[in-house]
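haha ok so turns out i had the wrong file open the whole time. this is the CORRECT one, sorry everyone. sequence first:
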Amino acid sequence: MNAQSAGDARIVVAGTDTDIGKTVFAAGLARRIGASYWKPVQAGLDGETDSEVAKRLGGLPAGRVLPEAYRLCTPASPHRSACIDGVALDPNRLVPPMVTGPLVIEGAGGLMVPLTRRLTFLDVFADWRLPVILCARTRLGTINHTLLSLEALRRRSIPVLGVAFIGDAEPDTQEIVADLGGAAVLGCLPILAPLTATTLEEAFAASFPRLPI
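then structure:
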């Protein structure tokens, strides 16, 4: 797809699975393009939430971290968490907020994570029609998960900006995903220790020198 200008970009950061590193990537991206950050559904409130992590690692002012549409207590799939918490998720509340400047939206888990017994995040993304950056691990199994996720996005006519790998670089894995998946590989963000706003900013700039935004 055609690159968006950073000034009006609205980008979804999705993943091939849970615990991929989407929040870290989203924080780095938001800082890089001066975006606001929005996590529509947070399931699990013990410790730092993803919004709090993005604020800290992205160095984002409070006004650029938008409140979640739903904050669910139970750390589980949103459909299950909402059931346990006694909350009915209304898809009409899952509408990207209007902001001044770019917006980074982070999904939860993989594309097919259910929000209700009839609605997945993929359904929501298909309704939005916003471009997606797909985050993927570099570990064994990622080729299958990444190619399936790219296929799912394309079947629903959801534009894909590219794949962002997270972990130790695996050039052959990145190449086969690009070849078979027909998607741009945007770069590979290493696991950072320590993980701070400064180390993330530096690693993000080095790992993703050119973004289609």
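The beta strands are 10-15, 36-38, 41-43, 65-66, 70-72, 103-110, 132-137, 160-166, 185-189.
again sry for the mixup
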